[in-house]
Amino acid sequence: MPQITKLRLLLSSAHNPASLLLLRKPTSASFSLLFTPTKTLRPISLFTPFSSLSKKNRTHLSRPLTQRNHSSLRETGRREKAAPPMEEIGSVGFNKRRAEGNDKSDRPKKILSLKDRKLNPANTICYVQIMGTGMDTQDTSPSVLLFFDKQRFIFNAGEGLQRFCIEHKIKLSKIDHIFLSRVCSETAGGLPGLFLTLAAIGDEGMAVNAWGPSDLKYFVDAMRSFIPKACMVHTRSFGPSAGSDEGDISGSRKFSDPIVLIDDEVVKISAILLRPSLSEFDAEEGRNQFSELVVKPGDISVVYVCELPEIMGKFDPKKAVALGLRPGPKYRELQLGNSVKSDRQNIMVHPSDVLGPSVPGPIVLIVDCPTSSHLPELLSLHSLSSYYGDMSGNPPETSKAVNCIIHLSPAAVTNTKDYQKWMTKFTGAQHIMAGHEIKNVEIPILKGSSRIAARLNYLCPMFFPAPGFWSLQHLNGSAPGYRALIVLVSCSQVPVSKLCESIPAENLLKFHLRPYAQLGLDRSGVPTTNSSSEIIEELLSEIPEIVDAAQQVNQFCHTTPMLNNNVIEEPCLSENTLPSCLEDISREDMEIVLLGTGSSQPSKYRNVSSILINLFSKGSLLFDCGEGTLGQLKRRFGIDGADDAVRGLRCIWISHIHADHHTGLARILALRRDLLKGVPHPPLLVIAPRRLKRYLDAYQLLEDLDFQFLDCRHTTESSLEAFESDTSEMSIENNANGVGLKNQDVNSTLFAKGVPMQSHWNRPDSPVNNSVVISILRNLKEVLKEAGLEALISFPVVHCPQAFGVALKAADRLNTAGKVVPGWKIVYSGDSRPCPELVKASYGATVLIHEATFEDGMVDEAIARNHSTTKEAIEVGDSAGVYRIILTHFSQRYPKIPVFDETHMHKTCIAFDLMSVNLADLPVLPRILPYLRILFRNEMIVDESDDVVDASASAAI
């Protein structure tokens, strides 16, 4: 293709020839010398290939000359004034303070007082708006925004809330209060990320009120294991607590009485608690009358009542003059509802003397009736009787007309005759059904991300399959994963005739409350549908040569021949010999699905870390599980396809405690629990740093997550060897940490003997029940065997305390000729600087998935944050002799495609969200890189610094 040839010539002429010498691979002789496996591997020898990373050579010679250079300059200006202490591992530096968990970002900040805003009830704009988080994928409860000029109230904060706000430029910096209708993963999964973002605003962060029923404090306290001390959250729990003297929720006499939470000049917000009916709840849970009934805090739901003050009548200046008032401040006081003294007469003038008839203030109800067992309680709430219409029998002066009701209740509840009849009691109210209506599945919430996915699918459907979020009307059920949606439509429980008129919620749908003249629905902000065909038409108009590029990609993806196990590739790829593990590989063996490829926090185009290892009929594993992982699964596989993937999970492995790597875990576990309810199944095995167990154990007080926990330290190579050689308790008890390191050679550890980091690594942790550990290790061995896997081995890496990478090895197999074929091997770095343990674990890997947070010109920034640059990640793979390298975990300063140097990407590819890499397609994986440059050529040339700043600001506010 002429364009590709010209592009390569341009790149090669732009690079400094001297820099190419740094990229030469070691000779086969030196490679054998450095990487022959031995029991004792000296760390210093591993990093001879990294000697090119000396400081004088860390210039950005290989970087494309585009306006993207401004990002480096901007980031350089943000670095700390005092350089953090650095240590060397081989010749690669790292931030010791950060690795030990002592970086200043975790230092407690001064106690932040809540915002004090001057409120003006007489002149304010107010509306409620649907924040459609989770609605297109049905993985979380939608959020609702109650907006005032100077106050923001958010009801529910499911996973993806920040990403939704970034997409639609909704600023969250003015949030005063967050209310939860239930305390569970569905409604609160986005809180950890939101708290972290608010803490990072400005020099001191921001404080926020979090309101919720029962034991909300358990949820917030659970997060303290991974939320920095800088986060200021004022927890406001209300109602009976399962941990208090009123723990018998079923016997609370005044359980359903309204609880006033906010009562200021502009709004009064009350909460009415809903508990599950004991008989209904007992039957739903499959218990008999002799079984123990436990209602957890997460089972309590809330109806929120938002009442605005009455709207004063129109001011009549003629009446004011007649009562002896001069024009001036007293007119204003009367309009605010205050009495004043007449200027000319010895009387008091009251508002009613000069104002016309008042108009009752608008009222909004937010109703969450999550199950049929909560419905009897909702129907019998006496505290809502004053809001019913004429049929309630209330005197007119005590009746309160409700203007809008937002129903968060699921369709299985709202479509029942009893619920519909209850809705009719609110005469004149506008009912908005926000509980996972099928209409909302048709429109992707993340339009920017879906646009990128559609373009990538056009270029290379092999690695970028058609995602499951395009509109049904355009796909006609033909795309993978959409058969499930069609079944869902046909089987939805919609009654033949509804008793009460309602409308389905739509993303960004508003209901105006003030000014009074605008009272009612406003669809002006609702996003329009955007079909894949429209996206492709735009692409072809913008980049006409993409047609030829797509044809060439399709040709080499489906017609690349193999000869004597050597893939016939371009000259730069011809040295890649097909590994024996890929002989006669089946497309049903394994695929890697990159669910989230961004770092730190979700962005418009990239979600945070999560990787699905899809073993097809043998199940699947998750490496990391950042916020929004479930939503990404549903976007990739469709609604039912994602449910199948969650049911088939064998194990979830978490690399470290940072929130962008695990805050989607509770939602996945909760869904698996619900999907397998009534079906015999073992708890899901979660392998993670021990600190995460504190969070999960605390969370268990809210809802059962049905998991079995194993510390990553128990899955290191030495621990597993000790387990295999002697499974008695003594072989583990002899180790001070209870992690089976009895016979470990200190030279094979991450840090050399006697250095400060080794003592930090060996710091004692909480006691371990060794018999339980041995039992779980046996379970792990059985789980791996059933999945066709030989081993899952964790290894320490340099990032933060208890940070790990993982190596996954498949069992050997027989090919069609009866020959034993070695199993494939995948290594995932987690977040890490290049380090000896990572190179050692990657030796001979089929695929290395390595973080590449920063571009090559930002080595200092990478060291300060204990991350890797693109070049460093590739050199780790080259040094270990891996077959293919997939780069991921890109800084959000690269919103669409990171900066990379194509000259040293001969075995490497850039990851994108929802990208799927099948083992059978590995030979051609690096060949799509030049074509990605064509697809994103405008993004590579145009300076996106403004977009990045906007995205960061939106995420932070």
From TrEMBL:
Its cofactor is Mg(2+); Mn(2+); Zn(2+). One of its GO terms (biological process) is mitochondrial tRNA 3'-end processing. It holds the Pfam family Anti-Pycsar_Apyc1. Residues 72-82, 97-108 have a biased composition (Basic and acidic residues). GO terms for cellular component: mitochondrion. The keyword Nuclease applies. One of its GO terms (molecular function) is metal ion binding. Residues 134-190 form the tRNase Z endonuclease domain. Keywords: Calcium, Endonuclease, Hydrolase, Magnesium, Manganese, Metal-binding, Mitochondrion, Nuclease, Transit peptide, tRNA processing, Zinc. It catalyses: Endonucleolytic cleavage of RNA, removing extra 3' nucleotides from tRNA precursor, generating 3' termini of tRNAs. A 3'-hydroxy group is left at the tRNA terminus and a 5'-phosphoryl group is left at the trailer molecule. Its EC number is 3.1.26.11. CDD domains: RNaseZ_ELAC1_ELAC2-C-term-like_MBL-fold (cd07718). Residues 57-84, 89-108 are annotated as: Disordered. It is found in: Mitochondrion. It is an enzyme of class 3 (hydrolase). Its main location: mitochondrion. Belongs to the RNase Z family. Homodimer. This is ribonuclease Z.
